Amino acid sequence: MPTTESAEDDQLFVLTAVLLTPAQFPSVLGDDYPEVCAGLGLEPYAEGYGLVLGQDGTGARWTVATEDVSLVACAIAAWDCGMEYDLSPGEESIVVALPGWPLALAVATPGIPQPHDPEPQEGDRAPLAPPDAGDWGPAQRRLGADEIALQWASWRAQVEDEEVSFAEPGEERHRGVRRVLAEARGYLVDPPPPGRVRSSFAAGEARTLRVDGPGWSMVARTDDIAFVLLDDEPGQVHPVGRGPELPGLLASLDGLAARPL
């Protein structure tokens, strides 16, 4: 952070942190890892970053990018278990301190002024701000896919097998879904930027796949069906059945996917 009037003002009170790596990043910020990094003004290094969101002593919002990914990962794991963890990245690991927050937070540091963007200084970039959640668009489409991935069992329970679209030759299917499947198959020939295809743990030996592309997101389980969301169809979720094609496509995508360490 820029130098302020006192050391207390310059102190960062940490509110939360997220990982920014090819395998794990806030999906709301972009379709792939390089896109998210570009939006934050960071180089898309393969090792990734930790993003620490907090306030200084004046209440100003700051996002600190650190190269100490392991430290941030340990803090997140501890917090998820309800444990305390003092997240204090060393100065030597800090890449940049950016004004604002890229994500919406509903919490604030007690005892200091309410969150606000810091006073701009000459040459400063515009403060980071969360994507507008008011209208359907890429950010909302990706958030919808996040929700399906997190609540897979609930979404799957709403779909009867006879209601899904099967990717069978000659069968009339939704044009947008056909395009998504074709572009996803194209990734096997021409690999996409890191993070466009991500794989995470699921029940049993299955994997949860998250695949994104221009104007679309797909969430799938390697042992089950897929769900497709499109920018040009607000709020619509299209289930795609196994059929003869989907299992092989998902297995191949999982083979090139980025995976959490």
What would your notes on this structure say?
- The chain has 261 residues and is of the alpha+beta class.
- The chain has helices spanning 7-10, 33-40, 69-80, 138-150, 152-157, 175-189, 246-256; strands at 13-20, 49-55, 61-66, 94-99, 165-166, 197-201, 207-213, 216-221, 226-230, 237-241.
- The strands form two sheets. It has a six-stranded mixed beta sheet, with helices on both faces. A four-stranded antiparallel beta sheet has the order 1-2-3-4.
- The radius of gyration is 20 Å and the shape is elongated.
- Residues 1-7 have low confidence and may be disordered.
User: Helix proportion of residues, in percent?
Assistant: 25-40%
Distance between the termini: 30 Å
Specify the number of helices.
Answer: 7
- Tell me the series of helices and strands, N- to C-terminal: HEHEEHEHHEHEEEEEH
Kindly give the count of domains: 2
Question: What is the CA-atom radius of gyration, in angstroms?
Answer: 20 Å
List low-pLDDT spans: 1-7
Give the spatial strand order of the biggest sheet: 5-10-9-8-7-6
- Give the helix/strand class: alpha+beta
Shape: elongated
